[in-house]
Amino acid sequence: MEILEKAKILISALPYFREFYKKIMVIKYGGHAMVDPSLKQNFAQDIALMKYVGICPVIVHGGGPQINQVMERMGLKPVFIEGQRVTDEETMNVVEMVLVGTVNKNIVSLLNRAGVKAVGLSGRDGELIVAEKMKVYKYRGEDRPPEIIDIGRVGKVKEVNPQILFTLIENDFIPVIAPVGIGPDGEAYNINADLVAGALAVALKAEKLVYLSDVEGVKDEKGNLISTLTIKDIDRLIETGIAKGGMIPKLKSAKKALTGGVKKVHIIDGRVPHSLIIELFTDEGVGTQVVFTEQ
Ligand SMILES: Nc1ncnc2c1ncn2[C@@H]1O[C@H](COP(=O)(O)OP(=O)(O)OP(=O)(O)O)[C@@H](O)[C@H]1O
Ligand SMILES: [Mg+2]
């Protein structure tokens, strides 16, 4: 490549660097997107680049596949109801051990090796994420009330105390957050990482919320990629069953985040090398962008 070409490529990103300078961006790093070692390396480089051009990244990670692996090794069988992991006391111990002890620390090391200062936290630290028990309602037909199922220590976000994050961000650290919340009696709750990312994006008044997942973006009924969604499309996608399973908490949180003041939400493919950089710093959008209203 001509040396001038290299300079031109860097300069072409200048408007984005300027726009995002000092802005907070919450990145949800999906458990499925973090399996391949070279993609993990790419992810760390992308975050380091974001940091060094002046963005303040905050990372929330998942870890479903990693939890399943350890559970199976321990002879425990993962059970899901309505897409949520049934989490008894023993399962909660495994969830916390894997998310906070292994997955979180791996990401922290990966980022530190890429030349930025990352700090791992769970929702317990500084009471960052206060949880309340989530009830699961199962539809039983028109004439009967829904069945309420107890799935154990599965929570939703009740409150966020973001002070610890502002302290870290101001001192140039990148917070890496495991989606474990703290309940009313100090007990741990397993919370879907998408919900945590959405709630944190609002509490931090983030510029963007980016979901790095294992799919090209949100797909329509024919399986085609939807490049732009507005929040009014979200309920329909969920009600019609076009968006199911792991896409539901992303879309619900996207709606909450946009209503709560986050400017834009992106759902992008973590399997594509450097998809974060492509989405943020080029005019080639990848994946799905979710916006409040059509501009
Ligand atoms: N309409 C849709 N468009 C795109 N993906 C969809 C849709 N409906 C359901 N999905 C599913 O949502 C999945 C993404 O959510 P999933 O929870 O599996 O991953 P993740 O949230 O990135 O990772 P983790 O849950 O481990 O943090 C896709 O792999 C796809 O199977
Ligand atoms: Mg998920």
From TrEMBL:
The lineage of its organism: Bacteria, Pseudomonadati, Thermodesulfobacteriota, Thermodesulfobacteria, Thermodesulfobacteriales. Keywords: Amino-acid biosynthesis, Arginine biosynthesis, ATP-binding, Cytoplasm, Kinase, Nucleotide-binding, Transferase. This is Acetylglutamate kinase. Transmembrane segments: none annotated. Substrate binds at G63, G64, R85, N190. GO terms for cellular component: cytoplasm. The keyword Metal-binding does not apply. Its main location: cytoplasm. The record marks K28, K250 as: Transition state stabilizer. Residues 23-269 form the Aspartate/glutamate/uridylate kinase domain. It comes from the Bacteria. Pathway: Amino-acid biosynthesis; L-arginine biosynthesis; N(2)-acetyl-L-ornithine from L-glutamate: step 2/4. InterPro entries: AceGlu_kinase-like_sf (IPR036393), AcgluKinase_fam (IPR004662), ArgB (IPR037528), Asp/Glu/Uridylate_kinase (IPR001048), Glu/AcGlu_kinase (IPR001057), NAGK-C (IPR041727). Coiled coil: none annotated. Its EC number is 2.7.2.8. GO terms for biological process: L-arginine biosynthetic process via ornithine.
